[in-house]
Write the structure tokens for this entry.
Amino acid sequence: MAPRHRRSHLLSLILSNILIPLAVFVFATGFFPYKPFLPGLATFHDDDLGSTVPRSPRPRAVFDRVIFMVVDALRSDFVYGYESGFEFTQSLIRSGAALPFTAHATPPTVTMPRIKALTTGSVPSFLDLILNFAESDTSSSLAQQDTWLAQIRAAGGELVFYGDDTWLKLFPGIAEEGRDFFLRSEGTSSFFVSDFTEVDLNVTRHVPSELRQSDWQALILHYLGLDHIGHKTGPQGPNMLPKQREMDGVVRMIYEAMETEVHLQRTLLVLAGDHGMNAGGNHGGSGPGETEPALLFASPRLKDMVGQKGRREYECPTSPKEGTEFHYYSKVEQSDVVPVLATLLGLPISKNSLGVLIPELAEGVWVGGKGGEEGLGHLERNARQMLEIVRAKYGVEGFEARSARFRTTLGGELGENACWLANGDEEQLACEWAQVSLVLENRAGGGGKDAETAQKTLYRFLAHAQEAMSDTASSYDIPRMVGGMVLVACALVAAVASFLSSFWPPSTAGVFFTLLSLLYGIMMFASSYVEEEQHFWYWLTPAWIALLIARNFFHSSDNSSHATRTLLAASLLLLTHRLSLRWNQTGQKHAGEADIVHTFFPSHHILLWLLILATYLLNAFQLHVRTFADILSRELAMCLESTLVVLAIVFKLNFTQADAPELVRGLGRVIREVSEEFPLVPQARAVFILLGVGVGVLGVWGVMSWSRLSTGKAGEVKDGRRVISMPERLHPLLTLFLMTQTRAPNVPLFLFMEVQRYCFDRLISREPRTSTTDKGGEVQEATSTMEVATTALLFSHATYFSFGGSNSISSIDLSNAYNGVADYNITAVGVLLFASNWAGAIWWCSAAVQLLMPKRTPPPSAKKAARRQDGGERDWVMVERAKLHEDAVLAARTSADQKTTSLPALLGEGLWTTYVSAMTAFVATGLLAVMAACTALRTHLFIWTVFSPKYLYAMAWAVGWHLVGNIGLGSVLYWLRQVG
Amino acid sequence: MSSTTKAPLAVQPNKPIEILPSPSSQLFSNLHPILLLGTLLFNFKTLVNDPVNTLLGLAPTIALLQAFYCILCLPPPGSQAKGSAKKKGAKASSDLAGRIVPTFLSLLLTLFLSAPALYILLILFGAPLTTHQLHTILLALHLALLTTPHLYYAHGLVKETWFQIASLQIPVDEVFGMTLGACVGAWVGAIPIPLDWDREWQKWPVTIVGGMYAGAVVGKLAGAWVFRGWRVKIS
């Protein structure tokens, strides 16, 4: 290939990889629009709106205190079902002292967005999900936003909090007042999910004393234990029922205090789950159970309030609604808590709340009392507050004008179907508001419709507004989304253009790679295949191995030892692949089903630890024979290696004891006792520091050998011994880092991957690169590059899923994200989080570099000759021939090395750019498909549950894995291959 | 290393296999795919309801169909290598015995060699190991019946030939086409399983069985009419 071509190809590749992050960003801004929110606190004097309509008086506070008890992951059936441990709570429901609901939690069903929904009443966006992992970010703080907590404080009340420290991050101290948001508080960290008891005892121990105090208006408790049990053992785990009984005991303690203590007489207890859990005990997405937490209001006063008229009998325990699994009683939105609490406590409703007063509660508490007048007043306030959001969205003037027009055309018609002419959400809402204002005027004028019609009209407006405002579908920025797609399409064209010439004529690997990319793109439009993406990779990988067998047989029909080696390597590949695909059950459909990690290892923990030790031993061996070979003296190297690996094992053991004690079960007690005095943070830091020392040693050695390189002495094949290049030396260090970032039961997968890399090294064709000018030689190179690219692509994805990853938010593993991090540091946590979730995929980036590198072994003839010479049999012709060949290769290589010291030529080298081009083309195809699917299906039911998370993952794959891993790490490693 | 530049094979392979010219051979060869597909379609409902018993019950029928195909349509073993000179001199009576015995041996090999090997291969390709054992064993049996009896019959047990078969380097004909088609069909048949259509026929191993029968038939027809004499190019 001519140099000019190379340069234009390189430019095209660089352009493509600049366009990719740009496209990702542009599309994201259109797809996840930033939602404006109304600033400031709501008051009762926001009177400038709808001034033609008279306002109802301030609400009467029915309660003056609230105890808000959040039990993390409290799914509805845990409280209401037949197998519940909440016996006392169920008796309250039966007696009428508690009103039960199933609250709908909108995805993402992780704690922080749910707390936002429960306190502000708004529907948090997917941006909040990212902020959930970047917890310290102040823009996610709720201290300055309008919440019912802020309303209580504005009314002069005090707040007390115990539980999950997410609340303390959301409500930090207020600088202007120079004090904390809460009067008293203690946070518990949800760091180790193996902690079932301490986290909750730390909350409960404060409750009796707080119940005796009367200086607070709101007591907030957030229990984490039930969620931990769910993550660990699933909803059917042995600790689940005792934990439910414990939570029931807390409810009993609070309720009994409410009955006996005078200052608690007018107190309301709210028991709520922030989200539910799926059959596997995880949450984050929208699977069955994840979006259905319980919500319950209890007070002895409710028994009297829910008077004769509005009284409903609740059966408890009971079964869910027919055809559902977790839908008990009436279903409400989580945000409905906000107007309910505000109204019951006599406070203004928070400005951004999309909640609607719950009819059953309203009927029970007010209609029974004052003939509905008061209840209507509350509804009206709710409607006005909602109207403000509607107007903010559609524009005040336009909405007013529309509404006024409907007032005249309606002509007093208030029926449900009166607004049939209205088209779209905005007109519908305008029409419905016109109806509401007509009703309110009529009532103010003393005449007009009865209370029931008024109520119906108000509810119709509120329900519709809630639905329309929660539905972000209408706020997509389509031009930006299309812009993102156009950019990524350009990136795809540029990527394909950059390697088309080495792609043609088509090779088997090239055709396979193209088909793979196309199939992957098509697959993105099928929601079930997005949820079950692992099947795609698990399905293609064996086929690729089978193709490689056929290819190798094709070249070895006259050489049966090569055929045997091929079969052996392929069998090992298939076997390790088959084992690793059962390692962790992933996907949505069969979440929580039996797999090796969760079913087999807990009962065979010794085997697990033997495998883990074997993996670390292999790593130690590689550190010795590769990383530090010929650099440090044998003794020093041994010392460094053993310290490093032993520290890593000790950290893994201690971490697992804290994170998953059921996998340790008393193993290595002596080690754990000795290392007990060191916390986990310095232990992890020690490992990281030693890894850094290792890299530093290699760096110094690299600089030294670089200076030798410039004098043209590098790359010699000394005495027939293999020369170890820099990427090979760095690989074991990277592996050890990734193993540190991996949960213990997944560590043996690194052993498998090492085996797989070794086998592929045997299977992938590697033709001698004698000539690079010859056209035929060029094609041969490219063929093997496409094979490496296909292999790396398949195994990066397959291992990502076999490590337990999926396209659902619930599979993100946070446990290793804080290794060695004491204070919150967003960069460090981000890097560690990515490394721990993409460990296998990152590992294959480095493995691919090694597979791509031409081997610097002496030619087989030389080896044979040397052996013969050793054996005393002189075959001087062979020796001479080998020597000549060696010299020729050396000469070619040295000249190549000298050529490649300038950067463009270096990166422009065929093998690596072809590899990167192929990967770029795949990433661009995948991104384009995901973007197109998100755009085409933006009104689809699954958009928030399947496609939005997929887009987030596609972003991570494109930016984290492709740009940082493949291109960043890979290019550096590939460049370093010359050192050594 | 494109395959066009060099021919690494020591033994240059046989030509594509020709179906015997007699009318009965031609007739059965054309009937064969219809019978295969017909048998499956006719039993599809019971296959969905009770895969194990249906597959078990169908196995003898399929074995018989394959046996007839070998006896009636394929050139008797050995004739391919030794050329057409022998064809003329062969007598009808010894011919029949010379066909039934190898057919029987082919089926025995299919049962005791191909089926276990394919069972292991199916497991390695992702078939369930801890559950559905009977399903997968019978699936392997059917896959073996669709892929190997005719290969054993037509090509014997010559090591070089089987190397060529494994490296996809024998010329495409309807015998090899059927084998290749069945394998690819079985592999493609796995696609509908994860889809959320909640159909009864998505369960293991119905789609695989359907895929491999369809694949065998398509492969046979394509091998006989479209790609006859081609060689798969692997580079």
Notes: Residues 23-76+91-226 of chain B form one domain. Residues 1-12, 81-91 of chain B have pLDDT under 50 and may be disordered.
